[in-house]
Amino acid sequence: IHTTPGPGGVATFFSGGAIPQHQALQVPPVLGGLVFSSPETVAYAHERGMPIIVFLQEDTEYEAIYDALLDAGVDGIITGRPAAMRAKLVERG
């Protein structure tokens, strides 16, 4: 069963610690002032072999965020607006 860490595990990972029991990071775009969806953050996670899946909530889901996440290279996007996300993917080819 694949799991993703909670806030403590995410903090451990981004502090340089290991979280070998987890296969991916599932994070919001921003939490507590930390931007998990920036190109630098995604690159850091990828360098350490960890995919980043960003989940969007009503207050963080808007068209521009789709472009930002795709440009940053996230591995997955959990959306509450699948039709809008699909339209963005079609638009981007």
Q: Give me the secondary-structure category.
A: alpha/beta
Distance between the termini: 32 Å
- Kindly estimate the percentage of residues that lie in beta strands according to DSSP: 15-25%
Mean pLDDT: 91
| Shape descriptor | elongated
The unreliable regions are: none
Main sheet: strand order: 1-4-5
Residue share in helices? 40-55%
Provide structural commentary.
This protein has helices spanning 7-14, 39-47, 63-72, 82-92, and strands spanning 25-27, 30-31, 34-35, 52-55, 76-78. The strands form 2 sheets. It has a 3-stranded parallel β-sheet with strand order 1-4-5. Strands 2-3 form a two-stranded antiparallel ribbon. The protein is an alpha/beta fold and 93 residues long. The mean pLDDT is 91. The longest helix is centred in the last third of the chain and has 11 residues, at 82-92.
Map the helices and strands.
Elements: H1 7-14, E1 25-27, E2 30-31, E3 34-35, H2 39-47, E4 52-55, H3 63-72, E5 76-78, H4 82-92
Parallel strand pairs: 1-4, 4-5
Antiparallel strand pairs: 2-3
